[in-house]
């Protein structure tokens, strides 16, 4: 479904948007006609297949901010990010994604990330692993000083007095960030003000290879979205060490 929506709605408009098809929800936070139309199409398909499910889309939440409040309590729910990395998409960068997560009784059950310009499909099911274009991904065994990224410019360059590699940036697209984590090219990402549609799809995938998304207190991120800072990494033990190295800087 994500592939077909991307092929029909998103990719035809890539590098082909007119000014009147691009809007700002707030300064620097873009939305396009492709975001809105793709969310409508994905929502329609989900409602036809699962009429009783709660569906929480990024653009629907902009209109009704209370929508995510039901994610933990719902018997069945989905989150939709119709175009993750919309700013990249507007600027003509290949680094954008379409993402979907399914929850049952507040627990992640399945998730999907489609990177249309890279032709990469990541699919996870709880207890059954995570797959890239049909090939099972294995746990990541990175060693040495941990390398991470954040979009917060005031935090970039932090190295915890040599305990970490100097912190770099993100891809400005969580879907591509999670692809980097799943394929082992980086150890972690630090995010602020996380939204469930940005992180729940990648969280299940990380869990299936021994990783996690953790809050500052070491507890897992969940669908409540109750966190101001999160760390995403492909190895839980290593991720906790990374958080410990960050605490002196973030506790200031």
TrEMBL record:
Q: Which domain of life is it from?
A: Bacteria
Q: Which GO terms describe its molecular function?
A: inositol monophosphate 1-phosphatase activity; metal ion binding
Q: Which cofactor does it need?
A: Mg(2+)
* Any one Gene Ontology BP term: inositol metabolic process
Q: Name one Pfam family in it.
A: Inositol_P
Gene3D superfamilies, per database record: 3.40.190.80, Fructose-1,6-Bisphosphatase, subunit A, domain 1 (3.30.540.10)
Binding residues for Mg(2+): 58, 81, 83-84, 198
Keywords, sorted A to Z: Hydrolase, Magnesium, Metal-binding
PROSITE patterns recorded for this chain?
A: IMP_1 (PS00629)
| Name assigned to this protein | Inositol monophosphatase
For this protein's source organism, the top of the classification is: Bacteria, Bacillati, Actinomycetota, Actinomycetes, Propionibacteriales
């Amino acid at each position: 479904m994500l592939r077909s929506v991307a092929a029909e709605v998103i990719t035809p408009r890539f590098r082909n948007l007119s000014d009147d098809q691009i809007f700002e929800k707030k300064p620097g936070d873009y939305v396009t006609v492709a975001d809105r139309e793709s969310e409508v199409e994905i929502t329609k398909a989900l409602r036809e297949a699962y009429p009783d499910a709660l569906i929480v889309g990024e653009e629907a939440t902009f209109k009704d901010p209370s929508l995510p409040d039901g994610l933990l309590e719902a018997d069945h729910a989905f989150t939709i990010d119709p175009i993750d990395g919309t700013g990249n998409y507007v600027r003509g960068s290949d680094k954008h994604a379409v993402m979907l997560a399914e929850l049952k009784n507040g627990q992640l059950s399945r998730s999907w990330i489609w990177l249309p310009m890279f032709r990469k499909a990541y699919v996870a099911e709880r207890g059954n692993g995570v797959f890239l274009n049909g090939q099972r991904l294995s746990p990541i065994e990175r060693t040495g000083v941990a390398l991470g990224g954040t979009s917060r410019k005031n935090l970039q360059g932090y190295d915890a007095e040599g305990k970490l590699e100097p912190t770099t940036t993100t891809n400005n697209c969580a879907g591509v960030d999670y692809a980097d984590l799943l394929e082992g090219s980086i150890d972690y990402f630090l995010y602020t003000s996380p939204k469930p549609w940005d992180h729940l799809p990648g969280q299940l995938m990380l869990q299936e290879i021994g990783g996690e998304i953790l809050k500052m207190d070491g507890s897992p991120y969940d669908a409540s979205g109750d966190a101001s800072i999160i760390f995403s990494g492909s190895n839980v033990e290593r991720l906790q060490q990374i958080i410990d190295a960050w605490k002196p800087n973030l506790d200031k």
